[in-house]
Specification:
The protein contains no helices and 17 strands. The chain is mainly β. The chain has two domains: 84 residues, Elongation Factor Tu (Ef-tu), domain 3 (Beta Barrel), CATH 2.40.30.10; 92 residues, Translation factors (Elongation Factor Tu (Ef-tu), domain 3, Beta Barrel), CATH 2.40.30.10.
Length: 190
């Protein structure tokens, strides 16, 4: 755990397989905490849940025994099948974070010149949460019919695949292939 009492969390950016898929090397950035060689990790997101052990840590082109917040690392995992890991998932201390498909959020739309368009209930958007890219649908609050560019609103979002989420998690979204806005998770929903 880091000094704030939160366990480590690592964004998975790339997955490499060695020796016909028996060894899995992950590349990513440590969002928080400290990870050590020999730590047990859980793969969270996209229906993950596999548990493995850190067999090695590579940082700055050399092997180290531990790495901490802000570092870009390569992690050699033992006990995890190559097909169980993909970009967009996270590595975390077992049981420290969960995956969800629904959440409440406060979103802000960009200007029309920067790509935003009107958003209505039922619109399909692409959400960018950490390194995950996942499609989802938006539901506006009952008192709102439409959100216009440069406006904010409270919404509920339902994703097509589960991702690792926490209250306060920032995200961005695209609408019809164009950057449309950003938001903050206000409440994860079961």
């Amino acid at each position: 755990m880091d000094g704030l009492g939160k366990p480590f969390l690592i964004h998975i950016e790339d997955v490499f397989c060695r020796n016909q898929g028996r060894l899995v090397m992950l590349a990513g950035r440590i969002e928080r905490g400290r990870i050590r060689k020999g730590d047990e990790v859980e793969i969270v997101g996209f229906g993950g849940g596999a548990i493995g052990t850190v067999g090695g840590i590579e940082a700055c082109r050399r092997y180290v025994d531990e790495a901490s917040t802000g570092m870009n690392v390569g992690l050699l995992l033992r006990g995890v099948a190559a097909g169980a890991v993909e970009r967009g998932q996270v590595l975390a201390a077992p049981g420290s974070i969960s995956e969800y498909t629904s959440f409440a959020a406060d979103i802000a739309l960009l200007s029309e010149e920067h790509g935003a368009a009107e958003i209505r209930t039922g619109e399909r958007l692409q959400f960018y949460i950490r390194t995950a890219v996942v499609a989802g649908y938006v539901t506006l609050s009952q008192e709102t019919d439409v959100l216009y560019p440069l406006h904010r609103g409270d919404v509920t979002i339902t994703l097509q695949r589960p991702v690792a989420l926490e209250d306060g998690q920032p995200f961005a979204f695209r609408h019809h292939g164009r950057a449309a806005g950003s938001g903050i998770v206000t409440l994860v929903l079961a």
